[in-house]
Amino acid sequence: MLKKDFCILGIESTCDETSASLLEGGQKVLSNVIYSQIEEHKKYHGVVPELASRAHAAKIAAVISQTVGKHPVDAVAFAHGPGLPGGLMVGRVAAETFSRLKKIPIIGVNHLEGHLFACEFEDGEVKYPLSFPLIALIVSGGHTELWYVKGYGDYKVLGRTRDDAAGEAFDKVAKLLGLAYPGGPQVSAQALKGRRDAVNFPRPLLPGTWDFSFSGIKTSVSYYLRDHKDVSVPDICASFEEAVCETLVKKTIQAAKKYKVKQIAVGGGVAANSLLREKMNAAGAQHHIAVRFVPRGMSSDNAAMIALAAWRQLEHAGANALTQKWDININPNLKIKNWGK
């Protein structure tokens, strides 16, 4: 059993945020430092992998130093996938270096599990442990996945996006409209001034499967702009956001009813979207299903979620937690898998 003051250093570098965090006793976030690369990528309207890798390499030592200070650390964890290869390698090298210097265990964590467990945070502490079984919706710039979760480390992937992730679609539509990067917040801000029913963009529900597909909505926006000279950017944003959020909510609620769960957990950067929260909470209340969203401050990529995911894995491992050899191989296409299988 881990000590109450057992402290894990988490490291996150999968995309365009360089982050380190200290989690004590699997409960309290002592620090969570994030260096955002938005300025580096803004003029390209998207993440440039080579620039991201360079920024991670330039900033990670300072981010870790600022996070740790003189606090003792008992284990180090890093996200070993999925993500950009260069960023993953920077995270691994940093974690391995820290592990060897301090002679402490090193743990590789699935970035997507981190987004799920981040739903347990509130005000820098783990206040809301997940209630199993549940349906998880992981929705971000790079991923949109639906899981049936029986317990910590016990997953069944129901569906994934077949093309663009939901967050990616937001960014691409923002670029089509000439809005600034990152596109998601810009589209949502414009949508507040528009009508959700102004344009009937498609809802790709893909009957008979739990998969998602958002490239068609993005293409519909492109065609609409091509075919209409006088357009209202707020109306397009509101209508697009409505179509995406309606699709996400319907699929998630359908899965929750199919698997007869009492809780839905929503994690990832798009989980910060106000309309998604409004519609998912309303649908959950209608069907008597509790909905747990990640706190907005923890919805984007951060290392606190990586540290918590590592804590859950250590708990699961029991007596062998600190002596077993954990997988630290980086895998840009890492899939979610059950622990010990």
Question: How would you portray this structure in words?
Answer:
The protein has 341 residues and is α/β, with parallel strands linked by helices. Helix content is 40%, strand content 20%. It contains 10 helices and 12 strands. The strands form 3 sheets. Strands 3-2-1-4-5 form a 5-stranded mixed β-sheet, sandwiched between helices. It has a 5-stranded mixed β-sheet with strand order 10-9-8-11-12, with helices on both faces. α5 (166-176) runs parallel beside α7 (215-227). The protein starts with 6 loop residues before the first strand and ends in a 24-residue tail after the last helix.
What characteristics describe this protein?
341 residues; alpha/beta; 5-stranded mixed beta sheet; globular
Topology of this protein?
Blueprint: E1 7-12, E2 17-24, E3 28-36, H1 38-41, H2 49-68, E4 75-81, H3 85-102, E5 106-110, H4 111-117, E6 121-122, E7 125-126, E8 134-139, E9 144-151, E10 154-160, H5 166-176, H6 183-191, H7 215-227, H8 233-258, E11 263-267, H9 274-286, E12 290-293, H10 303-317
Parallel strand pairs: 1-4, 4-5, 8-11, 11-12
Antiparallel strand pairs: 1-2, 2-3, 6-7, 8-9, 9-10
